[in-house]
Design a protein that fits this description.
heterodimer, A: 656 residues, mainly alpha, MetI-like fold, two-stranded antiparallel ribbon, two-stranded antiparallel sheet, 27 helices, 2% strand, globular, B: 252 residues, alpha/beta, Rossmann fold, six-stranded mixed beta sheet, 36% helix
Amino acid sequence: MVVGKQEVHRVKTRIIMGRTVHDDDLIKYGLMAVASLAVIIVLGIIGFIAEGSMTAVRDIGLWNFLNGDVWRPNRELYGAYPLIVGTVLVTIGAIAFALPLGLGAAIFISELAPKRYREPLKLISEVFSGIPSVVYGFFGLVVLVPFLLNNVPGATAGQSWLAGSILLGIMALPTIISVAEDAISSVPRSYREASLAMGATRWQTTSRVVVPAAISGISAATILGIGRAMGETMAVMMVTGNAPIFPEPLTNLMSPIRTITATIAMEMKEVAYGTTHFSALFLLALVLFVIVLLVNTTSRVIMRRMREKFNPTKPPKIRSQRFMDAQEKASRIFKLVRYAVILGVIWILVELWFGADAALGSVMVVMGLMLVTRYTAARWNQRLAHGILSLVMLVVVGLLLVIITDIVSNGIPALSAEFINEFPSQGGRAGGIYPAILGTLKLVVGTIAIAVPIGVVSGIYLSEYAHDTRWTNFIRGGIDNLAGTPSVVFGLFGMAAFVIYLDFGVSLLAGWLTLACLILPVIVRTTEEAVKRVPQELKEASLALGATKWETITKVVLPAAFPGVITGTILSIGRAAGETAPIMFTAVVAYQTRLGDFSVMDPVMALPYHLYFLASEVPDAYDNQYGTALVLLIIVLSIYSAATFLRYHYSKKINW
Amino acid sequence: MSTNLIDIKGLNLWYGENQALHDVSMSVKPNSITALIGPSGCGKSTLLRSINRMNDIIAGCRVEGEITFHDKNILAPETDVMALRKKIGMIFQKPNPFPMSIKDNVTYGPRLHGVTDRESLDKLVEECINKSALWSEVQDRLGASAMSLSGGQQQRLCIARALSVNPEVILMDEPTSALDPIATNKIEDLAQDLKKDYTVVIVTHNMQQASRISDYTGFMYMGKLIEFDKTENIFENPSEELTERYITGRFG
C-alpha cells in the first residue's frame, strides 16, 4: 500500500471555519484550555476573597484594620494587628523548633546514615506529612497541652504560643527535612572528594563545604516550612488558646495567642452573612493569602537561583571589589547574628523551665563549647557533631513514635464493629461514627472524580506541549500558588463561590469542588513529573513509526507514566480525606443521626471535622475522640502507604 | 631507609566482589613525576586513590598489601588518614573548586588545620596562587567566585588549593582530560615546575602527555601493572609486548 501525501494529510488535518487545522494543534489547544483552569481558580480565589473583603475595607478602612490593636467583633472592633503578630510569633517559634531538628535530620539522612537506612528514614518524614492536621491538633490538645501545663513552672494554661509552635514545628518538619535533604544530597560529590582529599574530616567537609553549598536549598526549605506553618489552621486553633492578645512580655511563650487562620475558622461558622464581621474575615484571608504568596515566591526564587548555581546557563556576574568586600562583611555579621539567635532561643527556653540563673549558665556553657571546639582536635569535634546529629534523628523518630503510639494505644479500646457501623448518639459521647466514615468516603470519591481528569490533562499539557511561553509560565505559576495557598483560604473561597454565589448551599457538591481545587496541584505535579520521566527515546521510537503526538501520548507515554499518575492520585486521596478547614464551611455538619436519600445537595458528616467537633465541643467523649482519631489515621496512613508501596514497587521494576 | 618516597608492594584491591587491582608493586622517587597509563578501566585511578586512601569513602572497598610512605605502611589501621591526605594532595579529573571565592578556596585547607591569622593566610594565598601560575590572572579579583574562572583556571586554582596545606606528594587524576589544549599545556608546564618542590604522580590516558612530562611511567592493563620503568625505556624500548602494542596504538 502506498501512503500518498494526500492520505497523510487527510488523517491529520481538518478544516475549521475555512482554515486547515492540524489535529495535533487542536488537541494542544484543548489541553491548554483545561490546564488554564488552574489560573482561573487562582483568579477566582483572589476575586472572591477580595470581593468579600470590600465591605470591611469600606467600613473599617485598610489601615485601621491592619494597625488596630483590638480584635473584638461584638464591639465592632476589628484590629487585625494582634492576629498578625500572633501568626508571626507562632511561626517564628515553629521554625526555631523545626529548623534545628529538620536540618539535623536532613544532614543525618544524607551524610551519616548507612545507605540502606536512608530510604526508611525518608519514609518516616513522609509519614509525618501524612498525618492529618486535625489529628495533630487533637494530639496537641490531649497530650501536649496538659504536659506543658504540668511541667512548665508557673504555667496557668497549657494552651499557648509554645504549644502552637511545637505542634506547628512538628508539622513543618517533613517539608524541611525532605527539601533540605534533597538540597544536601544534590551537592556534587566532587566537592566532598576535594575537601576530604585535603585532610578534612567528614564533619569538617559537611559543615564547611556541603552545607554552605546547599545553603540556598536549605533556606528554600525553611521558607516553605514557614509558608506551611503560617497557613496551618486546625492544629493551631486547637492548642493556642485563641486569645487575641499580645504576649506580655513579648517573649512569654506560655501566653495564649491567636492566629489569622484560627480566627477565620472559629468565627466564620457563627457570623451572619453580609455583615462587616463576615467581610472582615475575608479581609483576614486576603492578608494571609498575600503574606503566604510572598513567602512562597521568595522560596521559589531561591530554588531557581540554586539550580542556576550548580548548572549555570549564563556566565556569573563580575562584581566590583567593593561589592565583594561588603558581601564578606555582611556574611561575617550574619554569622554573629546566627550565634546570637541560637543563644537567645536557648535562653528563652531554659528560663521558662528553670529560671534565669540556669539560662545564664547554659548560655555560658554553650558559648564555652563553641569556643573550645575551635581548639580541640577535629576528630573529637566530629564525634561531638555526629553524636548531636544522631540525637536529633532520634528525637525526630521519637516524636513520630510518641504521636502514633498515643493514638493507637488509646484508640484501640474504642474500636468495635458498632463504632464503625452505628450512628453517633448522646452528642457523640456514645454510638459510632458510621455517617462520618461514609461522608468522608463520599467526599473523597467525588473530589477525585472531578480533580483527576483535570489534573492529569493539565500535567500532560505542561510536560508534553508547554513551551516557555508567557501563558504556560502563567499556568505554572497558578499551580504553584494553588499548592501554597492555605487550606482555610480554600474553605472561604469554596464558601463564597460554591455555597453562596452558585447557591449550592452547604453540600456535598460544594465540598467536592472545594477539595478538588485543593488537590489539583498535587495531581498536576505528580503527573507532570511522571510523564517527564518517560525516556525521550521511547517517544521518538513511537513518532518514528509515524504515530502522531497524541497517539504517542495515549499509547506509549501514559501507560509508561501510569504508576506515577496513580501515586499522585492516591496521595491526593489521602490529602482530601484528612483536610478539615476547606470542608468546614462548605460541606459538613457536626451531627447526623439518620441518613436520607443520597443527594449531592445535602451536607455530610466527615471524619476530620467530627474529630474536631468531639475534641473541642464534647470534651468528655474521650473514647470516641481517640477512636475517631485512630480510624482517620488508619485510613489516611494506609492510603499513603499504598502510594509509597506502588512507587517503590514500580521504581524497582522500571529502570530508566 | 629506602630512597623511595612511596613503595607499593603486592597491592590487591576489591570493590565488593570485583578485584580491581592485582598484585601491584611499584615505587615513587622523590621530586620526580611518575605517570600511570593504560586503557580506561584498567585500575590506574584506583591505584592513585589508594595512595591517599580516598578509596576509603567507597563502600565495599577492600585492600590487601602494603603502601609505605616515608617507610610507614599507610594502609595500617592506626594511620591518621586526615594527616596523610594533608601530606598527599590530590587533583581531580574535573576541576572541582568549591562554590566560594577564589581566596576562600585556597584558605579552606589551612583554616581546617588551624591557621586563623589573617595576614599569614593572605600571604599563603599569594604564594600558592603564584606557584600554580594563576596569580597574574586573578590577583585583582580574589574575592570573586571560583565558578567565574575558566576550566583551565579552575584546575590551576585546585592545584593552588592542594598546595595550600604544604603537601609532599601531589596526585593528579587525569587533570587535563576536561581541558582544552592551551590549558592542558599550562598544566603540563606547571607539573614540571612543581617537580622541584614536590613529588607528582599523574594518571593520564594521553600517552604523549606521559612521555612529555614524566620521569617514570607505569603501564597498567586489567588491574595489573604490566610494566614500570623510566619513561624513555617504556616509550622507546618496552620489554613487554603488551606495552609496545599499547603505546604504538595497536589496541586500547
